[in-house]
Write a structure and sequence with these properties.
Elements (H helix, E strand, L loop, with lengths): L1 H17 L1 H27 L6 E6 L2 E6 H12 L5 E10 L4 E9 L5 H20 L6 E9 L15 H6 L12
Parallel strand pairs: 4-5
Antiparallel strand pairs: 1-2, 3-4
Helix pairs in contact: 1-2, 3-4
Length: 179
């Protein structure tokens, strides 16, 4: 087997000596593989980590709170705001500094921004009062579906073509970019 590897290395060395293109090709291939490996390592290191629990420091030691307990508490807070229906609660980040991603359905009523501010404040209060967290978690809300009635368009409003309405998204006007 060692002889086979030596023969293969000798054949590659001979091909490189005869053709500079082959040397460039091998160099490019090695550089591409190195960049892909670096990106894979960075992706693993920098990717948000899903948490199974939150760790709260107490006088007697650490208190671990399971993700299911956090999910149940968030559902209890959401029961007080009937305009939101919680679809999913996920914990990310570090155990001492968690980030909550809460996916919601909006059922109508007040504006989403007003309700979201109230909901965030209630969840932060629950996290500090119930679980004893000194630093509240970062809370990200994502409205997945809206079942609210669309506001009526006044009769004197200028008509907008469907093409113009679709091309202007919440990002830059005219680019159609969305979140």
């Amino acid at each position: 087997m060692i002889q086979t590897i030596q023969n293969w290395v000798a054949a590659v060395s001979e091909a490189v000596a005869r053709s500079p293109f082959f040397f460039g090709f091998l160099t490019g291939l090695a550089a591409l593989l190195a960049v892909l490996l670096l990106l894979a390592i960075l992706g693993l290191l920098l990717a948000p980590r899903k948490l199974g629990c939150i760790v709260v420091s107490t006088e007697g030691g650490e208190l671990r709170i399971d993700a299911k307990a956090v999910q149940g508490s968030v559902l209890a807070v959401a029961a007080n705001i009937p305009a939101f229906t919680v679809r999913k609660v996920s914990l990310y980040g570090k155990q001492a500094a968690p980030e909550l991603l809460i996916q919601l359905d909006y059922n109508g009523g007040e504006s989403v921004a007003t309700l979201a501010a109230r909901f965030r404040a209630a969840v932060n209060l629950m996290m500090t009062d119930t679980f004893g967290m000194e630093k509240p978690a970062k809370i990200e809300l994502e409205v997945v579906r809206s079942f609210a009635d669309a506001p009526a368009v006044p009769a004197d409003a200028p008509a907008e073509s469907a093409e113009t309405a679709l091309s202007a998204g919440p990002g830059d006007p005219g680019t159609g970019t969305t979140c």
